[in-house]
Amino acid sequence: MSSVRRLMATMNHSGLKSGVSLWCRQSFSLRRATRAPLAVSYGGFRRFSVVSSSSGFSNDNREFVIVGGGNSAGYAARVFVEHGMADGRLCIVSKEAVAPYERPALTKGYLFPLDKKPARLPGFHTCVGSGGERQTSEWYKEHGIEVLYEDPVTAFDIQTQTLTTSSGKLLKYGSLIISTGCTAARIPEKSGGNLLGVHYIRDVADADSLVSSLESAKKVAIIGGGYVGMEVAAAAVGWKLDTTVIFPEDHLMPRLFTPPMALKYEELYKENGVKFLKGERIERFEAGPDGRVAAVKLESGHSVEADTVIVGIGAKPAVSPFEVVGLNSAIGGLQVDSQFRTRVPGIFAIGDVAAFPLKIYDRMTRVEHVDHARKSAEHCVRALLSAHTQPYDYLPYFYSRVFEYEGSARKVWWQFFGDNVGHAVHVGNFDPKIATFWLDDTGRLNGVFLESGSPEEFQLLPKLARARPVIDIAKLQSASSVEAALEIARSAL
Ligand SMILES: Cc1cc2nc3c(=O)[nH]c(=O)nc-3n(C[C@H](O)[C@H](O)[C@H](O)COP(=O)(O)OP(=O)(O)OC[C@H]3O[C@@H](n4cnc5c(N)ncnc54)[C@H](O)[C@@H]3O)c2cc1C
């Protein structure tokens, strides 16, 4: 039995699937005027559905609570509003000081040089990233949504359905959506990971701190050759800084790029003056006499001078204090089903923190990308508020955009859809296009990558990755251009 089916079978067995949908119906059919908690029972598990008054949140009961005020929370809030279920009913508990925003901007437009019109809030609050309305803090107020800023949830009592925030507030919830995202992986303090001038980038406060370092920086070291490394290195080029990218693998973006793909991007960065130290591991960061970072010491014995260090070595799902709803020990995060339900009735998890069944490839996964944050939020809230029961059927999609500041000689914009497994066929010479197709032994397409495509070409990618046509590998390999290769793939649909 597949892992997804096994999961579903376990959930059905425990009564969770029907339990949750029953409870949800119960939850939103409640009379809004009712203040007393209603008890709902699930095979011995007693839950209270709570209702708050529509005239604000004068009591401690909240009908719907979202913990985490990030990317997915913003999209979730929009669906509550669309269903007329936000006003006086929805509360968002946020660790950050600002309303939800499109987090990817932090390593893109936010880091543009100061004279090249950098992105700043309120410009990129959700849901502008997908062409939606800009939901500022006023938008939440106007829609009767309570947002508790800078007051993270520190404790959680599953029996009493109560959250405690760092300021000591006690919040009773009816339904709970956990959207706590990830935290940046850090270099230990004893290795200099907390020195002045060492940056991690997860939220707008981190980005502000980095920008203030860049203003006086001369030598920048970037630790990690993934998304954050590539994007911050491109930004540092815009600031005209001496930049070195250090990583243990033998090429950039090792989780997605093949060596030939990586080589093309590395050459572009090198033409822009960026240096790479590959196959190198960090031993520690060293401080100068002023206490600020001054050098990166490598295990090989090499040392790189740097007054500003940006660490982009991955992220960890922010599961605390919610571990009790069920961790996925293999891939991390909180385990959910195809409607984002945890094993605890009435508790959901979405976005980066959710370990969910990836239907198309029949496996459990976690996806740390904004497209999934948006879609999981929309799917979860629709399932919670309506009779919609279709399983989430996500097609993995990753993108990046760099060197986009005004005056940049070469903009980079790529998209990838599907699964990067199988034989990779590379087409194009990067002037400016390249495409890579991943195919299995029979020629069936698994995944497709395109750099600098036209809007029509980018629109073709998800169709190909979803349909998985069988393509003549020899024909694809001999395609004279990216356009010709895409046409060969399109004709196989
Ligand atoms: C710098 C950067 C660049 C990125 N670039 C891209 C990109 O180019 N393309 C792409 O597809 N994806 C990108 N991503 C990933 C994308 O931003 C995430 O997948 C997305 O933000 C996930 O949304 P989320 O709501 O799950 O988590 P988040 O947006 O991280 O929101 C989680 C929120 O929960 C808060 N929180 C955590 N714990 C608590 C608590 N106990 N109580 C209250 N609040 C809490 C956090 O402070 C945060 O505000 C990038 C991420 C980062 C950090």
Walkthrough of the structure:
This protein has helices at residues 3-13, 16-28, 71-82, 137-142, 204-214, 227-238, 259-271, 370-385, 455-467, 473-477, 482-491; strands spanning 38-42, 45-49, 61-67, 90-93, 146-148, 153-157, 162-165, 170-178, 182-184, 198-200, 219-223, 242-247, 275-278, 282-287, 293-298, 303-305, 308-311, 315-317, 334-335, 347-349, 354-358, 363-365, 397-402, 412-418, 423-427, 434-439, 445-451. It has eleven helices and 27 strands. The strands form seven sheets. Strands 3, 4, 5, 6, 7, 8 and 20 form a seven-stranded mixed sheet that branches. The chain has a five-stranded parallel sheet with strand order 10-17-11-12-13, covered by helices on one side. The chain has a five-stranded antiparallel sheet with strand order 23-24-27-26-25, with helices on both faces. 25% of the residues lie in helices and 26% in strands. The model is unreliable at 1-48 and 51-55 (pLDDT under 50). With 493 residues, it is of the alpha/beta class. Bound molecules: flavin-adenine dinucleotide (FAD). Flavin-adenine dinucleotide (FAD) binds at residues 67-73, 93-96, 103-104, 106-107, 152-153, 179-182, 201-203, 227-228, 318, 351-353, 368-371, 373, 398-400. It is an enzyme of class 1 (oxidoreductase). InterPro entries: FAD-oxidoreductase/Apoptosis, FAD/NAD-bd_sf, FAD/NAD-binding_dom, FAD/NAD-linked_Rdtase_dimer_sf, MDHAR3-like_C. It holds the Pfam family Pyr_redox_2. Belongs to the FAD-dependent oxidoreductase family. Its EC number is 1.6.5.4.
